[in-house]
Amino acid sequence: MEIREQLSGKLLKNTGKKCRLDIKVYQQKALMHAQIEGAICVLSDMQADKSYIYKSGAALELGMSFHENPVEIDSIWEEEMLKKIHPDDRLKKYIHELRFFRLLEAMPAESRSEYSVLSNIRMADKNNEYKWMKHRMFYVYSPYNRKLRLAFCIYNIALKPSTIPEFLIINTVKGEIVAKEKLDYKNILTHREREVLQFVGEGYGSKQIADLLSISVNTVSRHRQNILEKLKVKNSTQAFKDSFY
Questions:
Q1: What does the pLDDT look like over 106-151, one tens digit per residue?
Q2: Hey, which bits of the chain come out as E strands?
Q3: Can you say whether the dihedral through the CA atoms of 186, 214, 95, 228 is positive or negative?
Q4: What would the pLDDT profile of 149-159 be if each residue is shown by its tens digit?
């Protein structure tokens, strides 16, 4: 998936002096969160390209084994978790994490710790039925080289089912929503048109979108024209801004 590859390139780009943060401190915090919240926590180390998955009873509800805790993997991508996410929500998760990264990179380093991603996603449970999960993600930047060092994800089984996946970037200090996915046009655009619109907003051209969605370039062009007509805007980029910002 091109979006995930693009995100990997951003997250794993560690140049300059080495970060000396003590990973053990954050590993202990991840374990504590998993135990106290009954969550599944994933701590990803960008410098080492490794992840640590900490499980609680919630893992059993999702049909995950409990043989090791934590599970250490040689990747920043927790495939055991990601493969359980509904394909539509997984794509949106990557898009919004890339968006989150770009937002933090553009702000002063001292402010980055105030922000996080909050989302509702569907994940397959032990019966292979989709269950609503609350997902939170935090980035930890190195004070030594100012590069992204750690990503911390917390997965909780949601108390109530959600009607649609919602992805928010929030300021956790001020309790403010900074950016959100506004699917205000869900009753106007078709599912495929919304997919095309999201890719347009992320900077993909028609040929790339066609490849990602396994459709023809002509079909993409038709969808883009339909979007303009339905939303009464001059271009697809403006349509994306109106829909998602």
A1: 889 889 999 999 999 999 999 999 999 999 999 999 999 889 999 9
A2: 40-45, 50-54, 71-73, 115-124, 130-141, 148-157, 167-171, 176-180
A3: negative
A4: 999 999 999 98
**What does the block give as tokens for 223?**
């969808």
pLDDT in tens, 44-96: 999 999 999 999 999 999 999 878 889 999 999 988 899 999 887 887 788 78
DSSP state at residue 105: H
Joined tokens for residue 177 = 């929503």
In terms of Cβ atoms closer than 10 Å to its own Cβ (0-12, 13-18, 19+), residue 111 is exposed
Q: Name the residue type at position 215.
A: I
Distance CA 188, CA 201 (A): 18
